[in-house]
Amino acid sequence: MHFIDQFKLNKFIEIMSSQTWPLFDTNLEKDEIIKNPSFFVYSQEGEIRPATAHNQYLKTFTLAFLTRKQEQLDILALAEQLRLAGLRFTGSEIDEGEFADTNQRAKMITLNFVHVIKVRE
User: Which H/E stretch holds residue 79?
Assistant: First the structure.
């Protein structure tokens, strides 16, 4: 038995590289946060649940956009672009708060996706 993940990390990075703001994984450092007033962070460490097909699973993928400059993100346009990387958009959330140790106000837009993992025997 083997698993075929429909998510294409290389395509995701290619699409995100064409965006205005830099992209980091969850290992970003504090200096990167300070240096960039707006940026993306992604996590591949998502939950896995059964899909409707008997030989498929859905894995959660999260992409967050953080901005201290109140920049605008076209959520739907980006979500549509990321379909080419095998990601299905499931919704978004918007939060406002302060960065720890900086006292700077920030907005975070979280984009939630899933991608299909197929089981082959």
Answer: helix 75-82
pLDDT tens digits, 39-89:
999 999 999 999 998 899 999 999 999 999 989 999 999 999 999 999 999
> Are the C-beta atoms of 23 and 42 separated by less than 8 Å?
yes
In the chain, what are the domain boundaries? 2-120
Tokens of 37: 């007033």
pTM for this model (two decimals): 0.91
Q: Are 7 and 87 in contact (CB under 8 A)?
A: yes
Ranges assigned E (strand) in 7-72: 23-25, 38-43, 48-50, 56-67
CATH class of 2-120: alpha beta
Query: Which positions ≥6 away from 14 have C-beta within 8 Å?
Result: none
Residue 71 identity: E
Which runs of E-coded beta strand occur in 68-121?
Answer: 88-98, 105-120
What phi-psi label fits residue 91: left (phi over 0), alpha (psi between -120 and 50 degrees) or beta? left
Helix (H), strand (E) counts: the chain: 3, 7
